[in-house]
Amino acid sequence: MAVPADEFRLRQDREGAWKLTPVNLSAHRISALGNGSERWASRNPFAEQPLAARIEALYAVAPYDDSKHVRVTDSADLAAFRQSTSSASVSLRLEEAAGEARGGGRNLRLRAENKGVARHGAWARAGLSYATPYRNFSGTSALGVWVKGDGKGALLNIQLGTPREYMSTLSDHYVTLDFTGWRYVELLMRERDVGEMSNYEWPYGDYYGIYRTPLDVAHISEINLYLNNLLPGDSTEVIVSPIRALPVARARPRGFPQIVATALTGVVPG
Questions:
Q1: Whether residue 94 is found in the same domain as residue 228
Q2: Cβ–Cβ < 8 Å for 128, 217
Q3: Is residue 114 domain-shared with residue 86, that is, in the same domain?
Q4: What spatial distance separates the first Cα and last Cα of the chain, rounded to whole Å?
Q5: Is the Cα dihedral 206, 215, 220, 125 positive or negative?
Q6: Going by C-beta distance under 8 Å and a sequence separation of 6 or more, which residues neighbour residue 134?
Q7: pLDDT under 70 in the chain at which residues?
Q8: pLDDT the model gives residue 263
């Protein structure tokens, strides 16, 4: 039980005695239909046993070109982005992605290079800040974006934030760049990726605002694009289409656009 992330459950054996038994929870979220995330493999580290799984239906996201969408950011904001990195060994370059026109607009290319020796803690950030009036995404509860990955496994974090007078919230949304080519991704604002936050190092740690406080979409004071878990001695390149805030609706019983599947395996007591 001293190993971080190892999980256990109290279960009764065949004689009725309660015992702590190891289990493994493996979760996966389908980020949009047709983008390849529908296929998922989960490995059982224990003995052969029946499958136990939970499937959770999430909210459906309006199409990317929905008439009620709100522009979040694109390469038109290029000059306004502020850049920072985890150390002098990490660099970041932003530019308009010439020849790339996914999403019907100007695409943004982020190229980060890690000249250090460690992957953990290597990050680069491009951020936008807004004073009053803040950005207003009222009527939306999701983000839609086309992402072109390079397959090197870095992490893209699209983060929205609200100011202190509106409860100082940071809303993280992860896209693992373990794919090559274009993928359309839907990110529900209410489904933050805080469960994996401790797997990485970040330049912030307001846990109350990250884990508990809801995002006030009518008062967005910052938009950040992070690249984290950068491969040492290598570069990572990602292209993103215009990011749009989109409305959501309750999913119908047939054809859930987004689901979360959780596979549960463990040591069978007895």
A1: yes
A2: no
A3: yes
A4: 20
A5: positive
A6: 162, 163, 166, 218, 219, 220, 221
A7: 252-261, 263-270
A8: 67
